[in-house]
Every structure is written in structure tokens, then in C-alpha cells.
Amino acid sequence: MFYFRKKLFIYFIVIADWTGGRIVVLAQDTIKPQILEEVTVRERRLKDIGEPVTSMQLLDSSRMEKIPSMQLSDVVKHFSGVTVKDYGGVGGLKTVSVRSLGANHTLVSYDGLAVSDYQSGQINIGRFSLDNMALISLNNGDERNIFCPARMFSSASVLSFQTVKPVFSDHKPVNVRVAFKGGSFLLLNPSLLLENKIGKRISTSLNVEYIYNKGEYPFTVHNGDSVYRERRTNTDIQVFRTDANCFVQISPKHFLSAKVFYYYSNQGLPGAVILYNTQSRQRMWEENVFTQLHYQYDISQKVAYQANGKMNYSYTRYLDPDYLNVERKLDNTYLQREYYLSNAVLYKPLKRLSLSLANDLSLNNMQASMPNFSTPTRYSSLTALSAAYHDKWVTLSATVLHTLISDNVQTGASGNDYSRFTPSLSISYKPFGKEDFHLRAFYKHIFRLPTFNDLYYRLVGNVSLAPENTHQLNLGATWIKYLHQYVPYFSIAADAYYNLIEDKIIAIPNKNLFVWSMINLGKVSIAGIDIRSAVEIKAHKNIAFELELNYTFQQAVDITNKDSKTYKHQIPYTPKHSGSGVFAIQTKWINFSYALLYTGQRYVLGQNIPANALERYFDNSAALFRTFKWNKIQLTLRLECLNVLNKQYEVVKSYPMTGRQFQGKVIFKW
Fold it and tell me: How far is CA 27 from CA 11, 42, 44, 56, 427, in A?
């Protein structure tokens, strides 16, 4: 699991056990021998502000605990520069756009391997559980760890989820965690985590979770002078998911891990609230199962090898019993399959220089029940050549990614083949030896391939589409300081960036408004600033305060056509101003946390006129929690109130979000 083991500190191994090895590489590349107090500061940095030599942001389990949340997407909203498109409720679609580039430009990684959806290109992060999450990271630009699959370099940003890895105390080969959460609108959510140590080299974990939510929350409808109360209907959802893992330390140099993930949901789809129509009978069934393997061989102190494999199956059924066609309903099914293999080699010719070469091969296909569907298959090869250099003052990394794509279809014409090279470069500089202050910059050019829907969807797809090209430029700084014994930690980080999207894929109407086409027409210019800060105050030996603040400014404008009514207008669903904050009080008796989310005014269409405006909103949530310990037993009680002020708002137009709701949680660990 770890390469160059003799050069790592013991506490690196502890961190690696919780993060699957990713932070080990960060630590090894950035830490030099130092006293214990400085090591402690380094750990705080990773938890609160992220990796200082990149624009990475991190949320570990202790910080996630302080954020009142219903599900995983509620936590992700506290990253700066992130927009989560949320259609409301537990079952609503949750997609992530980073720095206004769109959800298609965000790669979602689950325990080290990318999650794929070649149909739409957008990953619904509502599919994953918050209960067994150990670390969430968001990286703009490239991964600092160059020893990874080539696919990790293929997107503008990477949102990584690392689940909990088993840790056992002496003479205790079994860990059990039982949790139950219940709340407003008939939320029922039991879960079980079972970890088992089988001998000295093998450990397993099994996480099982069930969710039921009727979800019929009230909301207010404003229609001219009329104001009336309604209830969201067709909002029920049932979810079953399980995550099984096996970890094998074959020898000190050989490590193997395996994962099986299964997700099933049956849910209603509440429609848009338009005029007085609040009813919907649409339903959706989803099933997703994937298996993934990771193998690492530390050949020597200079050479390491890893292999990754994955098989993915995804099934979706969509039913609209009120669709106006000859059958008087729409009942479609979609199947996606993926077969994926990755190989990577790391070579360290010099003490401060590392080189890596990674190649990923994948086959993705899709079937649908629609007549005359193209049934596409995509063959992909990604090859990444990377180099990283680190010394006391400077950190440099560079990657050249080669992408080779070929599509085949059973019916009709297929999309174009592509062979392209795309570069990226990052640098970090520490100008003051005694100050923990870093300057950083990166440039990255990458492209987003058209999805199967873009190319082959009936009456809409366009097989002549070219990829979207993105250029990213970032300048940033991080400062971390011990101020006083009562203020042991203060950090601030700021990043200014400019993104340019060329050949943006957009939909336009043909001669009538009922048939649309996908074309390469758009160009978007994005300039922004992300600022994040954290401070810890120890007022008393039994009382501590923590405050974290994030602010984002984004000017993301359409620069496609000077004669267009949308020229230099803010692109849809992108606020100029947004921010978040978390305030926590920790005492020996009880803990309290309060979270605030702010999103400024947005527009639902490209033309920024009052008729297209969505109002700004604040979302306030609070939590009380306490953990009791008796020998090897740990009991946590938690009470949360979400949207404390009961403010009604919309993230997506005509989809009202949930108002005030309460939830309680009991967690038993042994």
C-alpha cells in the first residue's frame, strides 16, 4: 500500500489507513523532517484548509460531523467554487459544477477510481452515502499525487470520495457500527457497518444502508396576487445500498483491495410547479453495481507499480403514464456497461524527482428500449506521462495526457474519432523559510467529449459534435499561522482563476420548438475568486470554538456572439456571489454547530432579465450532538434542524426545496 516506506513517518501510515494512500503521497512530497509540533500543524492544514501547494480542498470526517446535513450533497455545498444543482428532497438529482464549468467537467472518484455515466456525463452524487465517508477532496487542475490512473487527469476538476477503512485496536478483531436516523416527512434511515480482521494480513468491511422517505413537504405558491399552500406529491423514495470491501496485505511490498458497490432506488419524480399544476405521476427505478480491484507492488524504493480494474453495470427505467403519444405513456429503459483497466508505474530516479506513466483502457456501451436507438459503444485509451519535483522551496509538476477515442454504433452514423494531446503544469513556491506561506499557480488544457445523449439521442443528437475545450489558469496563496495559545490555528487561502470554454455544446430549436439540435456554438469566459479561512479558539480547557468561512465570486459570461441578446450575460444557474460558513462549539458536556449557505441571484436562462431571475437565498442549519464512552462501547446522540428559518427557495426553477425539518440520529459503536 505504501511505497518508499522507509522514508515515511509512522503517523503517515495512520493517515494512509484512513485515506486509502492518497494523502501518503501528498505528505511524502511536502513534508521534510521536523519536530512534532510542526507535524501537528501539518495535519490541521490538511483537515481545514486543504493542500497548500495546490488548490485542493479537504473535508475529513471530524469536519463533516460539524455540518448539519441530510445527505452527502449538503456537505459538498461547503466547498468554495462549487454549485450543486439540487432538484429538492432526498431523491432529487444532485450534480456538481466547479467554477462554472458544468457538471460534465467534474470527475467523481470513489475510492480511487472514476465513476462513469457516458449517457449524460453527469454523476448524481446522491447515490453515495455520507455515513461511511472518511474524506472528501476537491481538486482543481491536476492531482498532486501523480501515481494514479490516467483518467484522474482527464477532467477540469476531481471530486474524490474516500470511504472509511478498517482500523482495529489490540485484541479486538471486530468493529460494529449501528446507526438509525429518523426525521420529518417520514424519514427512516437505518445502517450497519461491520468490520472484521481475519488474521494479520486480511481485513473486510461491509456497509449496508436503507432509506425510506415519503417526502411530502409543504411549500408556498405565489401566482400573481394569489398565495396558497401546497404539498409536494409523488416524492416517495426507497433506497438500498451496500458497500463491501476486502483489504489484503499480501507482503510488505504487495497490497490488494477489492470493492463491490450496489445501489437500488425506486422513487417518484415530483414535477415542476407551474401555475396551479403540482401533480406528477412519473417514476424512476435505478440499479447500479460495480466491482473494482486495486493492486500495488512496491518493487523497490525507486520503482512502484499499480493496477486497477473495474466493471460497472447501470440500469434505469423511466415511466411517465401521462405522456401524450399514441401509447399514452412513456416507458423507457437504459442500460450502461463499462469494462476498465488501468496500469501505472512510478519511478524516482532522484531523491526529489518522480516520474510516472499511466495507461487506462475502457469499453463503454449503452442500450435503450427506444426504437431505432443507435446502441453506441465507445473505446477509450488514456495515457498520462507525469513528472513531479520537490525541494525546500519549490514544487513543480507537469502532465501530458493523450486521449484516443473511437465510437461504433449498430444503427445510423457514429461520432468522430479523436486523438489529442493536452498538457497541464503547476508550480508552488514557499518564499519564506520560517513562515508557512505558499504561492501557487497552474495551467491546464482539457476537453470534454460529447455524451451519448449529445450524439445519439433521437431527434436531438448530432454525431458531428466536437469536444468542448477548456483552458484553466489559476493563481493562489495559502498562509497558516499559530497566533497564540488561545488561537492555536489560523489559516487563509485565496485563488484567482480564469477559465475559457470553447466549442461549448448547446441545444437550439429547429424550425419548430418541439425539435431541438445539439451544436458546437458556445464560448464562455469565467473569471472568479475563491477565499476560504479557518480559525480555532481555545477559550478554556473544556471549551473550544471553530469558525470556517468560504466566499466565491464568479463572473461567467457568454461571449459567443456580440449580436446576441445573451452576449456578456451571466450563464444560467451561476450566481456571482456565494458563500458558506460553519461555526462550532466543542465542550466536555455537549457540542453545537451552526452552518450557513448563501447563494446570490441567478438566472434560469441566458438572458439576464427580471423575468428569468431566481432570488438569492440563505439556508441556516444547526446541530447538537454528544458522544458517550464506556470501555469499548461508544454512543453518539445527534439532533439537527435543517433550514431553521423555514425559508422557501429554489435551486432549480419551479422545484421548491424543503422547508424546516428535524432529524435525530443514534449511533452505536463497539
Answer: 10, 9, 13, 14, 17
Residues 55-66 as b or e (16 or more Cβ within 10 Å = b): bbbbbbbebbbb
Q: Which three cell numbers stand for residue 379?
A: 473505446
Q: What are phi and psi of 391, to 5 degrees?
A: -135, -165
What tens digit of pLDDT does each residue of 409-437 get? Answer: 999 999 999 999 999 999 999 999 888 99
- In our burial notation (b when 16+ CB lie closer than 10 A, e otherwise), range 394-403 reads ebbbbbebeb
Pairing of strands 157-163, 106-110: parallel
Task: Summarize pLDDT for 228-251 with one digit per residue, the tens.
Answer: 788 888 999 999 999 999 999 999
Q: For the residues 241-266, what does the mean pLDDT come to?
A: 97
5-325+334-669 classified as CATH 1.25.40.10 = no
The DSSP symbol for 17 reads H
**636: pLDDT strictly greater than 70:** yes
Question: How many angstroms separate the CA atoms of 328 and 233, rounded?
Answer: 22
DSSP bridge partners of 207 = 193, 243
Q: Measure Cα distances from 191 to 61, 243, 665 in Å.
A: 17, 11, 11
Query: For the residues 209-231, what does the mean pLDDT come to?
Result: 85
Q: Is 582 exposed, middle or buried (0-12, 13-18, 19+ CB in 10 A)?
A: buried
C-alpha cell at 431: 518564499
E strand or H helix that includes residue 72: helix 72-76
CB 386 within 8 A of CB 355: yes
Q: What is the 3-state secondary structure (H, E, C) of 318-370?
A: EEECCCCCCCCCEEEEEEEEEEEEEEEEEEEEECCEEEEEEEEEEEEEEEECC
Cβ-based neighbours of 559, under 8 Å, separated by 6 or more: 523, 524, 525, 567, 568
C-alpha cell at 542: 473544556
C-alpha 156/C-alpha 146 separation (Å) is 16
Q: How far apart are CA 109 and CA 124, in angstroms?
A: 12
Size (the chain), residues: 670
The set of cell numbers assigned to 563 is: 449580436
Cα–Cα distances in Å, from 404 out to 117, 358, 424, 544, 592? Answer: 18, 14, 18, 53, 52
Residue type, 15: I
Of residues 59, 58, 74, 85, the one with CA closest to residue 139:
58
Cβ–Cβ under 8 Å, residues 293 and 256: yes
Q: Are the CB atoms for 666 and 637 separated by under 8 Å?
A: yes
Write down the domain spans for the chain.
5-325+334-669
**Which pTM does this prediction carry?**
0.90
SS3 42: helix
How far, in whole angstroms, is CA 588 from its chain's centroid? 33
Smallest CA-to-CA distance from 348 within 302, 414, 314 is with: 302
Half-sphere exposure of 512 (CA within 13 A, CB side): 3
In DSSP notation, 421-490 reads EEEEEEEEE---SSSEEEEEEEEEEEEEPPPHHHHHSTTT--TTPPPEEEEEEEEEEEEEE---SSS-EE
Cβ(147)–Cβ(329) below 8 Å: no
How far is C-alpha 89 from the chain's CA centre? 19
Q: How many CB atoms lie within 10 A of CB 170?
A: 5
Measured distance between the N- and C-terminal CA atoms of the chain, rounded to whole angstroms: 27
Torsion angle (degrees, nearest 10) of CA 538, 137, 244, 339: 180
